[in-house]
Structures are given as C-alpha cells and as structure tokens.
Amino acid sequence: MGLSRLIDGINRFIGKQVSWLILVAVLVSAYNATVRFVGDGLPAYLPIPRASNSLLELQWYLYGTVFMLAAAYTLLRNEHIRIDIVSSFFSKRTRDWVDLFCHIFFLLPFVTLLTWLSWPWFHRSFVSGEISANASGLIIWPAKFMVLAGFVLLTAQALSEIVKRIAVLRGLIDEPNPQHALHPAAEAAIEMEDKGRD
C-alpha cells in the first residue's frame, strides 16, 4: 500500500500540473490563428514571431503531452469510460472483481507492451536528433519521450490500482475512489426501474 500511495501521489501531482498545458496550447493556437489571419497586415519591422509550422507543431506537442501524462491520473480518478448499462447489473463486489481481472489481464499487459515498444522508438529519435520534415518544424524526440513517459506512468498506475482493488476485496481498506460507483445516470435509471416494479 505504501508503493501504491507513492504512485498515486506522483500521478496526482503530474495530472494536476499538466492541466496548465491546455491553457498554453489554447494560447499558442489562438496566437497562431490570429497571426495567420492578420499576418499580411502587420508591419515587417514588428519583432513578433509570425505564424509557422513550429507553432502548429508546438500546440500538437502540448495537447499530446497532456493526453499522455494525464492518462494515469484519469485512471487514478477512475474517470475512464465504463459501460454502465452492463456494470449496473453487477454488485459492487462483482465490479471490483471485474476491475481486478481486467487490470491484470488486459490493462497491465497492454501498457507494459507499449512501454517496451516506446523505448527504442524514442531512443532512435533522440540519438539521431530527429527533426520534423515540415519547414521550420520542431525536434521530434521530446514528443516521443512524452509517449514513453505516459506509458511508464500508466503502467505504474495500473499496478497501484491492482494493489488497491485487492485490498478493497480483502476488506483492508475502504473504497479509495468514490467514482468507482455507478454513473449517476445509471443509478437514476436503476432507481426508476425499482420504483416501476413496486
């Protein structure tokens, strides 16, 4: 549980910090669009960067970084998509067993494989100094590193979720995630169905 708490703390911190990159990406995107729109009307002597492929790629890198680094935080918060129409028929304990099974046999092998495959993909790019083929494009390895880092964090979070689910099933801890309950719409539908039976 100590390791699980450490992993949760790291992913919680990273998830909250990278959310600010959405604001940066929006500002870069707005600046790039504005400069493209009024670029011809700006005097050439103004010392401001013009719209470029590098700004466009920067906003892709920022969005990609948020997506990859926040994936583990999303798993921690149990905010990934669920099929509530199916899980609503299960008891809480059955949902816990389903989660444990899926984390061990589907999530963990998948993220471990992608972490393993991401390393040489990033390493080749880093060693070669790979640069975008677009004119004035950016170096590519930082974006590839974010893919690798995202899968490392997601693998660690998968292990943490497995530990916590086992602890919940054994009665060692209370449910650490209030979001592990059904979606409110699914709960409302079940309540309506129960009232209809009465």
TrEMBL record:
Q: Which organism is it from?
A: Nitratireductor pacificus pht-3B
Protein family according to the UniProt entry? Belongs to the TRAP transporter small permease family.
Transmembrane annotation, as ranges: 20-38, 58-76, 97-119, 139-160
Q: Where in the cell is it found?
A: Cell inner membrane
**Tripartite ATP-independent periplasmic transporters DctQ component domain: from which residue to which, for each copy?**
57-166
Q: Which UniProt keywords apply?
A: Cell inner membrane, Cell membrane, Membrane, Transmembrane, Transmembrane helix, Transport
Q: What's any one GO cellular component for it?
A: plasma membrane
Pfam families per record:
DctQ
How it assembles, according to the record, is: The complex comprises the extracytoplasmic solute receptor protein and the two transmembrane proteins.
Note the InterPro entries from the entry. DctQ (IPR055348), TRAP_DctQ (IPR007387)
Q: Which residues form a coiled coil?
A: none
Where would you say this protein principally sits, based on its record? Answer: membrane
Q: How does it sit in the membrane?
A: Multi-pass membrane protein
According to its UniProt entry, the function of this protein is described as: Part of the tripartite ATP-independent periplasmic (TRAP) transport system.
> What Gene Ontology molecular-function terms does this entry list?
transmembrane transporter activity
Q: What is this protein called?
A: TRAP transporter small permease protein
